[in-house]
């Protein structure tokens, strides 16, 4: 044991100058969002969608314009009848007024989309109004509701052309009614038409922007919900794989090692059954004890997966002492396992750390028993300021780590050291193996304490150690 003890001392001296390492995790999420390049709809299409979507502002504006049209139409007809009673054109004025009112009432029935029927209706409405203006200039004031109708139905350029035509008719009608030239009658109608058109176009564009913003918000909300669903599914998959890896390590370090020991003991009992019944009986009794221990571990798996030694109370130190005593008793004089604890923890070790170190000790001693042909092994638990270290040393035959090759992926054996390394690295620690032929082996697991809050630590990728595993000890 002198070589192993000196190697442990050198390892501990080396640790005093080591700093605590840190590990970082880069979390990236790839999401898809709405295309920022969008084609702006026309004002006519915006007006149609506003009416179709039940926009209250659009409905109130349409009702106001309808009421204004019939009010102006009735006022113009009343003015004509009051000032021109009994003229020959009066029947024509009354008839054309009725036709204009009927055509206007027909508009909502045809719908609000710029279909050919709708355009034909608008053309007929404008022509009847023009004839009325030619016969009675007072009907020119009905042009304002017609501005709104044209701007709401036609594309922008066609709507502006219609507004200009209607404005010319209004100016001509006002000049016919005037007794002399009045610049106000020439400039006021175009100004009013320009203001009305600008206000209406501005309202339409505002409606388009608000509607576009609402669509974008709905798309973003849909993308957010989809991303959350995908993230939840990914987390469930990662959790499932991590739990599978954890269970595989738990089973390997407990049940699988126990079953392997039972197999060896029963095979030895079978070989010596006739020649040495007493020795065979001892092997069977030892295998029975291991089976009882495995049964306790299996029941513990069913409850909370905590190691049975830790569940019995006393903490990690007591569990390591119990493990050393049990391995010594099961070896029947073939192997003596000693346990030593240096220092005292400033606070209670986290359950994850205690469980991982105990499983590592169990796996390492199983390798010693099965492969090392050692007579003495030592468990040393060292409490430092910023970490806790577990050393497992034996005086067995040892091996050359640099000459070892990893087991085949399909092999049954060879999961021990990768599982130990994965346990340590999940906790942010390191696992080192020092060995040489004929000089025994020292396995050292160092786990930092500052990186272990109560919250669970993100595990490594399931089934893949974060770094390439060192060559396996003995196995």
From TrEMBL:
GO terms for molecular function: 4 iron, 4 sulfur cluster binding; metal ion binding; phosphorelay sensor kinase activity; protein dimerization activity. The chain crosses the membrane at residues 60-80, 92-110, 122-148, 160-179, 185-203. It is found in: Cytoplasm. InterPro entries: HATPase_C_sf, HATPase_dom, His_kinase_dom, Sensor_HK_TwoCompSys, Sig_transdc_His_kin-like_C, Sig_transdc_His_kin_sub3_dim/P, Sig_transdc_His_kinase_ChrS. It catalyses: ATP + protein L-histidine = ADP + protein N-phospho-L-histidine. Residues 357-451 form the Histidine kinase domain. Keywords: 4Fe-4S, Cytoplasm, Iron, Iron-sulfur, Kinase, Membrane, Metal-binding, Transferase, Transmembrane, Transmembrane helix, Two-component regulatory system. The keyword Transferase applies. SMART domains: HATPase_c. Its cofactor is [4Fe-4S] cluster. Residues 35-48 have a biased composition (Basic and acidic residues). GO terms for cellular component: cytoplasm; membrane. Its EC number is 2.7.13.3. Its main location: cytoplasm. SUPFAM superfamilies: ATPase domain of HSP90 chaperone/DNA topoisomerase II/histidine kinase. Residues 462-475 have a biased composition (Pro residues). It is an enzyme of class 2 (transferase). The keyword Kinase applies. PROSITE patterns: HIS_KIN (PS50109). Residues 1-51, 395-415, 453-475 are annotated as: Disordered. Signal peptide: none annotated. Member of the two-component regulatory system NreB/NreC involved in the control of dissimilatory nitrate/nitrite reduction in response to oxygen. NreB functions as a direct oxygen sensor histidine kinase which is autophosphorylated, in the absence of oxygen, probably at the conserved histidine residue, and transfers its phosphate group probably to a conserved aspartate residue of NreC. NreB/NreC activates the expression of the nitrate (narGHJI) and nitrite (nir) reductase operons, as well as the putative nitrate transporter gene narT. This is Oxygen sensor histidine kinase NreB. The lineage of its organism: Bacteria, Bacillati, Actinomycetota, Actinomycetes, Kitasatosporales.
